[in-house]
Amino acid sequence: MKKILCFLLSTFLPFYLATCLLYSEIDKIAEKRADSSYSIQSKSKKEKIKFYVSEGNEHLIRGEYSDAIDFYNKARELKKKNSNVLFLLGEAYRLADMKEEAINSYEKALEFGSKDIRIYLGLGNIFKLKYLYNESEEFYDRALKDEENNITALRGLAEAYETEGRYQKSLLLYEKIYSVDSSHEMKFKIAFLNVLIGNYDKAEKYIGSLPGSKILNGYINIKKNPNLALKEFTSTNEHLLKALVYLEMKNTVDAKKDLEILINQDENTLSKRLATILYKDLN
Amino acid sequence: MPQDEVLNKFKTINIKLKILLLAIYCSLFFPPANLYSNNDNLIRELLWKDFLSLGKNRPRVAVVLGGGGARGFAHIGVLKALEESKIPIDIIVGTSAGALIGGLYASGMEISEIEEIGSDIGWNKISNLSFFKMLTLITADSLISHRKLEVYLEKHIGKKRFDELNISFACIACDIKTGERIVFKDGDVGFAMMVSATIPGVFKPVEYRHRLLIDGGVVNNLPVDIAKVLGADFIIAVYPEADFSLFEVKNVLTTLYRVINIQGNFLVEDQLNNADFAVIPDVKSVSDIELNRSEECIEAGLISTRSKVNNIKDKVLEKYISKIVLNKP
Predict the structure, then answer these.
(1) From residue A105, how far is each of A74, A84, A122, B326 by CA, in Å?
(2) B327: closest chain A residue by CA
């Protein structure tokens, strides 16, 4: 009997406690909202807008986008042509992946006089996600007119050019960003684009230490010196390239070993599918 | 604590908070998962480079452009997206609107020029079709002349012949006397394009040798099989499908057109299954005659294809990885 009681307590007590904590938290939030709602009733329109915007900002930073949108919309109901609120709504919609609503809010913010550069950045970002690169570039260009060296705009523009296959233009922008932000990511981008245009010597100078860099480095070595390439492969991400080097050297036995590792992995990646096909063809 | 020290501490905390907020803001714009932490993207682009460098040994890629009237403007967006993604186009086969866009591209015209033509087009530029003429078509004893379309095409493509084109090209027509499918792959390109787009019931059939020719869409609206005959190894089929439930059947002419389109759709199904990859631009709500919606169609073709470019490259790489790796020149 004691044992049964202990078992029940140990199983259900934590769950019970967690539920109590959760409900007490929900109660607290509801109470806080009720208090706020009651307390702002008597406030002026300006103060109410400030309150709703402040609440919205809190939710936005916490990633609670639909709550943020609700509060911003409440603020907007009080003053429809508030460009700041419209900008914030645009941000919240964008982060919530509601693209058309975001575009609408941003455009209204511009229409009602906002000059916030972040609107152009937001629109640039959204149009890029919609695969409309021309429009995306226009907005990033517009942002750069206001702030020549805005990193976000430069980066967005560089990515749009890269996706459109305009590698030289993209490379120039990444190099400009790199002069200010010498992060591994920028190094990698420059190295990658140089590989794509066949400039391996320059690419080597920018190989950083991101996981993808090892693959890039391996690829460059395959092109320049396959024997050296084999010694350089150290990462588990490089099995496909390793297999390719073995095949280049007509060593099908070792190539198959690397292909088998990829075939046995769980995730259905492109490398795995290619390895499966190659393995079949080698047999 | 002296006041100065307190102020300095406050300033330092203030600066650190601002940097933190800026970092949070930047991370909202550019989430931490960068493009190349996913190795697939990297492997894809590197192997694609190797695929392109196969040169003469590279498998030939064909794009088959289906008919669809005004919806065919989507082909412009498709070709633009393929070009920017460095997906080579070695063969183009087209029917009707597909023949018009495909022929212009195959002749070497820049995609931006074709876009301009597409944005500027109107029924008045390619025919003497007026509203009154449309109403009287079903009772008229003579249909509209195709001469204006012929002149329009000549203005843009000149007197080029098939063997002078930058890209291998073929287009389809139908002999209304016998129901035969006619494949144009030599002779005057402009003439062939015009014939392929001779809409039955609107334009006069074209007399050619002993035949009477009309729009190839009647017998083959998506000629994937012809692309294979021309030597294509990988076929991308582009079909600007319509949703017929959105269009009213108001009179004899629209009924006739609906029947032709329904028949065309049945014929397309098999062809789509035989392609290696299908692109269906989102132009379902555009009718055959709405030339004024060309920009919308171009954009739809662009978006549909850009969103599928990685899938197309994956399919090509999966089909030809052994050739890339084992049969290098």
Answers:
(1) 14, 10, 11, 54
(2) A248
**Residue B1 pLDDT greater than 60, yes or no:** no
How far apart (Å, rounded) are the C-alpha atoms in residues A48 and A82? 13
Instruction: Check residue B96 and give left, alpha or beta (phi > 0: left; psi -120 to 50: alpha).
Output: left
Output A39 or B147, whichever has higher pLDDT: B147
The residues that bridge with B146 in the sheet, in sequence order, are none
What does the pLDDT look like over B72-85, one tens digit per residue? 999 999 999 999 99
Out of A61, A164, A270, the one facing B314 most closely (by C-beta) is A270
User: Which SS3 state, helix, strand or coil, does residue B162 take?
Assistant: helix
Smallest CA–CA separation between A156 and chain B, in Å?
A: 9
Which range is least confidently modeled, B65-69, B202-206, B293-297, B301-305? Answer: B202-206
∠ CA B165-A196-A261, nearest 5°, is 115
B318 and A130 within 8 Å at the Cβ level: the answer is: no
Give the model confidence (pLDDT) of A136-179 as tens digits: 999 999 999 999 999 999 999 999 999 999 999 999 999 999 99
The residue among A128, A55, A124, A41 whose CA lies nearest residue A85 is: A55
The partner residues of B161 in beta bridges, in order of sequence, read B188
Asked if B84 is an interface residue toward chain A (Cβ–Cβ < 8 A), one would say yes
Q: Hey, are the CB atoms on B29 and A121 less than 8 Å from each other?
A: yes
Chain B residue numbers touching A273 (CB-CB < 8 A): 314, 318
Residue A282, token pair as written in the block: 């080698």
- How many CB atoms within 10 Å of residue A110? 19
Cβ contact A269–B40 (<8 Å): yes
Nearest CA distance, B88 vs chain A (angstrom):
13
Spell out which chain A residues touch chain B, with contact meaning CB-CB distance below 8 angstroms. 61, 95, 121, 125, 130-132, 151-152, 155, 159, 163-166, 185, 188, 192, 195-196, 210-212, 215-216, 219, 237, 240, 244, 247, 269-271, 273-274, 277-278, 281
Q: How far B259 CA lies from chain A's nearest CA (Å)?
A: 35
Averaged pLDDT for residues B163-181: 95
Report how far apart, in Å, the C-alpha atoms of A283 and of each of A90, A242, A271, B5, B12 are.
56, 18, 18, 76, 66
DSSP bridge pairs for B277: B236
Q: Which DSSP string do the residues of chain A spell out, in sequence order?
A: -HHHHHHHHHHHHHHHHHHHHHHHHHHHHHHHHHHHHHHHTTS-HHHHHHHHHHHHHHHHHTT-HHHHHHHHHHHHHH-TT-HHHHHHHHHHHHHTT-HHHHHHHHHHHHHTT---HHHHHHHHHHHHHTT-HHHHHHHHHHHHHH-TT-HHHHHHHHHHHHHTT-HHHHHHHHHHHHTT---HHHHHHHHHHHHHTT-HHHHHHT--SSHHHHHHHHHHHHHH-HHHHHHH--SGGGHHHHHHHHHHTT-HHHHHHHHHHHHT-SS--HHHHHHHHHHHHH-
Catalytic residues of B: 96, 215
- Find the mean pLDDT for residues B200-220: 88
Task: Enumerate the β-bridge partners of residue B208.
Answer: B211
Confidence of residue B24 (pLDDT cuts 50, 70, 90): low
Name the one residue in this structure whose structure tokens are 């607290």.
Answer: A28
Nearest to A212 among B28, B42, B47 (CB): B42
